[in-house]
Amino acid sequence: MKKTIIYGLIAGLFVTLVMDIGMANIYDTDKQGSMLFGYTTMLVAFSLIFVSIKSYRDRNGGFISFGRAFQIGLWISLIASTMYVMGWMIEYYVFFPDFYDKSEIHSLAKMKAAGATPALVQAKEQYYDQVKQMVKNPVVHVLMTYVEILPVGLLVSVVAALILKRRAGNPNLVV
Fold this sequence. Notes:
- By secondary structure, this protein is an all-alpha fold.
- It has helices at residues 2-26, 35-59, 66-95, 99-113, 118-134, 138-164.
- The chain is elongated and about 65 Å long.
């Protein structure tokens, strides 16, 4: 369990630091963060789930059940996601309280430059108004941030558990 916690802390530290550095670099520019980069960073951080499950399996005679493997991945996902959420809450409320305003301005300008219809622009404005209302409630904001990262960790946990599970009666299976 101690190694699982350490892997979760490392994954959480990695994904949070990359997010913090990225936000600091784009905050006062016309650039906008890349969702592809953000989710790739999460996948890299959650690759530690594979390492942790394999390490556990190797220490236990080369065998691990799907349930135990998923449990390890779940703990790493929860720890890393919690660190990410805490990092974002601090970053947002302390350093970037106008993040959603700036994001809206940038997004709308990009849409208008691309020739979006006024109806699409208005729909995007309404979307940002809803988001800005929701994040006024810190509990909702925390839940929204968990929804951003936790499903990625859960998906990686399921895939890793499926790939790395090995029953005691199947010694020929090597992963």
